Amino acid sequence: MLTQDILLQAFKAIMTQPVRTGLIILAMSIGVASVNVLTALGDSARQYVINEFESLGTHLVIVLPGRSETTGGHPPIFGETPRDLTLDDANALLKSRHIAAMAPVVIGSAPISSGGLERETNIMGSNHALLKVRHLTIQHGQFLPDAPTDKEIPVCVIGLTIAEQLFPNRLAVGQWLRINDRRFRVIGVLAKEGQSIGVGFDEIVIIPVASALALFDSHSLFRILVETHSQQAMYKAVEEIKRIITVRHDGEEDVTIITQDSVVNTFNKILSALTLSVAGIAAVSLAVAGVLVMNVMLISVSQRTAEIGLLKALGATRRKLLQLFLAEAALLSLVGALVGSLLGIGGIMILQWWYPGFPLSLPLWSWLSAIGVALGTGLLFGVLPARQAAGLDPVSSLSRR
C-alpha cells in the first residue's frame, strides 16, 4: 500500500462512522480551544502588566520608606518604626550625578468643589519633574511650575474627567478649585491617561508637594520617583541613593529601593509560569480526548476484523496496518485541532469585543503547540488499537472470530 492509499483508506473508514468521528473531533476541538483561550488570557495579562510598568519610564527607580526584609514574629512596639521620607531626603538625592530627575510624591484623598459642584477624589502632591518621570501629557495649559519643592503655591493640574465634571462647557484653565478649605487655581489639564499601575490620572488633582504636605498636615512622603540618565546609571544611582539615605538616617538603611527592570522581570517570570500552568490545566482536556480516541478506535478494530483479515490475506504487513490505524488517529486529531483553533480564535474575538480595554492576542507558539499536542495525543492513544489490529490472525479475522 502506498502512502496515498493508506490516507485514502483511513479517510473512507472515518467517513463511514460520522457519529463516532463527530464525537472525537468535538472532544479534541474543545481541548484545543480551551488551551488557546486560556493561554491567550494568561499571555495577554503578562504583556499588559509589563507594558504598564514600562510606560512609567525607561530608567525608573522608586524609593519607599521602610525595609523590604522582615524577621518574622510580632512587630516591634517601641522605637523601631520605619523612618519617614522627607522633602530634605528627596532633595539630597539630587546630589547624585546619575539622577536626571526626581519627583517626590504625596498621596491623599479630599473633597474638591467648584461652582456648587463637589466630589471626592485623589490628591497627588509632587513637583515639575513628575511630568518627565511619569511621561504625562498636558492637553490644556501647563504643568506645575519649576519651583523649589518646599514652596507652597496655590496652583493645580487636574485630570480630564475632573475638568469635565467640575467645569462643564467651559475651559478649566484659569478657574479656581477648592480642596478642603484651600483654594487652588487650575493651570493645566492632563490629556486622557487612563489607569497607570493603580493610579487613575483622569480623576486626580496634582498640586505642589509642599502644598500637599500642608493640606494633609504631614511631613512624610509616600515615595520618591527617580529617573536616571541611562540603564548603566540606574544601578549606580541605586547605590548612591542607599548611601545618601543611610547617612541622613543615622546609619540605618531603612528604605526599599525598587528598579523598574527588576519589577518587570519579576512579573514576567510570575505571569509566564502562571500562563504555562493554566495552559497545562487546559491540556488535561486533550488527554481526555485522547482516551476517547483510543476507546472509539478499539471498538472500530472489533467491528472491522473481517476487513483487517482481508487486508492481511492480500499481503498487508503488520507495519502497513499500524500505519493505517495511526493515520486514522492522526486525521481525526488534526481535524479536531483545526476546528478547535477556529473555536479558540472565535472565543478570543468575543472576549476582545466584550472587554475592548484589555488587549487579547494568541501567541503563535501557543497555537502551534496546541495543534502539535493534539496530534501527538491522538497518535499516542492510537498506538494500542493499531497494535491490536496489526496483531490479528488473518484466518480468524476472516471468519469473524
Automatic annotation (TrEMBL):
Q: Which residues cross the membrane?
A: 21-41, 270-301, 322-355, 367-386
Keywords on record = Cell membrane, Membrane, Transmembrane, Transmembrane helix
Instruction: Give its localization.
Output: Cell membrane
What protein name is recorded for this chain? Answer: ABC transporter permease
Topology in the lipid bilayer: Multi-pass membrane protein
The coiled-coil segments of this chain are none
Family, per entry: Belongs to the ABC-4 integral membrane protein family.
Matching Pfam families:
FtsX, MacB_PCD
Residues in domain ABC3 transporter permease C-terminal? 281-394
Instruction: Please verify whether the record's keywords include Cell wall biogenesis/degradation.
Output: no
